[in-house]
Design a protein that fits this description.
There is one protein chain. The protein is of the alpha+beta class. It folds into two domains: about 230 residues, Aminopeptidase; about 80 residues, Peptidase M42, domain 2 (Elongation Factor Tu (Ef-tu), domain 3, Beta Barrel). About 25% of the residues lie in helices and about 30% in strands. It contains eight helices and 17 strands. It is globular and about 65 Å long.
Length: about 325
């Protein structure tokens, strides 16, 4: 699982530019699914047809995009003015290494400020001597992300930018590689533009009309000094969401997933998140409504350059979903 995770974490794929991530996933899933297609928005949709007499359509959705910065202007001294793509934290971004899709490196910096720092104070230094040189390196509208940097922390934990939501993408890839034949049709959607409004899942769920929707995403943590909420701990199992700001999980589906974790012999955690949202919010309100739930991987330091997860939680999530699908 760790080697797969590293592969899926490596591509640069900010919201709207997820194709490099999709290319890796296509390669990993070749031969493991019945169909594979990319829709108009860029969602990668992989289907394993059910072998049952009346198969349900179960849609899993994990988003490929991650947060970043987009160039809004270039100053005469060669510095790049930027704004956020998704929920970028300014303080955790200071002097961070970022990279553009064309390989240009930069450092995120802030003007000296008195009072509250805002995006208008931020710029990226790419080492250009003036505007002309900067324009030869990047263009207005180019996006930068925290530079890929995946490393282990102790025996079980892994830190990297883009862990939100590539760890869930890797988990969904592993699920599709291991389930074989199932009674129900399993639809794996690797969605786009989640960080800017769950747009990909909205399009995909409308087109696919699943009977059940399960989002795979990270959630916040409550197990570091001074942080106790949400009541979620790394290494204590996959989270089964009760609710967040975007959706309230279907009670029957939620309890069914909890029971599957118990049958699989893995730890689970009931999750209540007082903010945020996942692809479940888009699936839940699609067409006439879809029963949804989110399976959440506990993640420390979400939306930073060093998001930390525990590989044991990924393994627990895999076994839970395999059990849910009758494996």
């Amino acid at each position: 699982m760790f080697e797969l995770l590293k592969k899926v974490l490596a591509p640069i794929g900010p919201s709207g530019l997820e194709e490099p991530v999709a290319a890796v996933i296509r390669q990993e899933l070749a031969g493991f699914v019945d169909t594979m297609e990319t829709d108009a928005l860029g969602n990668l949709i992989c289907v394993r047809q059910g072998r049952g007499e009346k198969p349900r359509k179960i849609m899993f959705s994990a988003h490929m995009d991650h947060i970043g910065f987009v160039v809004t202007g270039i100053e005469k001294e060669g510095f790049l003015r930027v704004t956020n793509v998704g929920g970028v934290g300014l303080n955790v971004s200071l002097t961070r290494h970022v990279v553009f899709s064309n390989g240009v490196n930069g450092v995120v910096v802030s003007e000296p400020v008195t009072g509250e720092r805002a995006m208008k104070h931020m710029f990226i230094d790419i080492g250009a001597k003036d505007k002309e040189e900067a324009e030869s390196m990047v263009r207005l509208g180019d996006m930068a992300v925290y530079a890929p940097d995946c490393f282990r922390l102790g025996e079980y934990r892994v830190a990297s930018p883009a862990m939100d939501d590539r760890c869930a993408c890797a988990l969904l890839v592993k699920l599709m590689q291991t389930i074989g034949d199932t009674q129900d049709t399993v639809i794996a959607v690797f969605s786009v533009q989640e960080e800017v409004g769950c747009r990909g899942a909205k399009v995909a769920s409308f087109a696919l009309a699943p009977d059940i929707g399960i989002a795979l995403d990270v959630t916040a943590w409550g197990d570091t000094p001074g942080t106790t909420q949400p009541d979620i701990k790394l290494g204590e199992g996959i989270g089964v969401k009760v609710m967040d700001r975007g959706s309230i999980s279907n009670p029957q589906l939620r309890e069914e997933l909890m029971a599957c974790g118990e049958r699989a012999g893995v730890k689970t955690q009931r999750e209540v998140l007082p903010f945020g949202g996942t692809d479940a919010s888009s699936m839940q309100t699609s067409r006439g409504g879809i029963p949804v739930c989110t399976l959440s991987l506990p993640c420390r330091y979400v939306h930073s350059a060093c998001e930390v997860i525990d590989m044991r939680d990924m393994e627990a999530g895999l076994k839970l979903m395999q059990t849910y699908l009758g494996k």
